[in-house]
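Input chain follows. Return structure tokens only.
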Amino acid sequence: MAAEKELDLVEIAPQASPPVCKIMDYGKFKYEQQKKDKALKKKQINIVLKEVRYHPTTDTHDFDFKLRHARQFLLEGNKVKAAVVFRGRQMAHQELGYNLIKKLKEALLDIAIVEKEPNMEGRSMIAIFAPDKKKIAALEKESTEDSGTE
């Protein structure tokens, strides 16, 4: 029957008894599958891990500057890796790095959640922050309400 219609005979369920087959244009079927896969891939969101690097001696202005960048990354939907890099004798004062990340954590609490608590990896103390979609949506809703009343 498939040969008469110039189509392909495709086996769908070989385990079934009797096996299930379908008469179709296999080339057209593969093409449509590729189109569906491409459309799904387009809708897929890639989450990128952005890094913000500090040193234990980072001053307030530099901290605030990098904090603004971290907030921007989180609002764009990316994860942020905060790293405090120690050099030489700074390794003896790891509490400075922990305090710096704690300060960053408090500043980002309104839009982010801590995905990985701060811990040492070699000469760096690393914490990872992920955007909290509910908090960001509430923040955006609040800002649109504020701008609407003026």
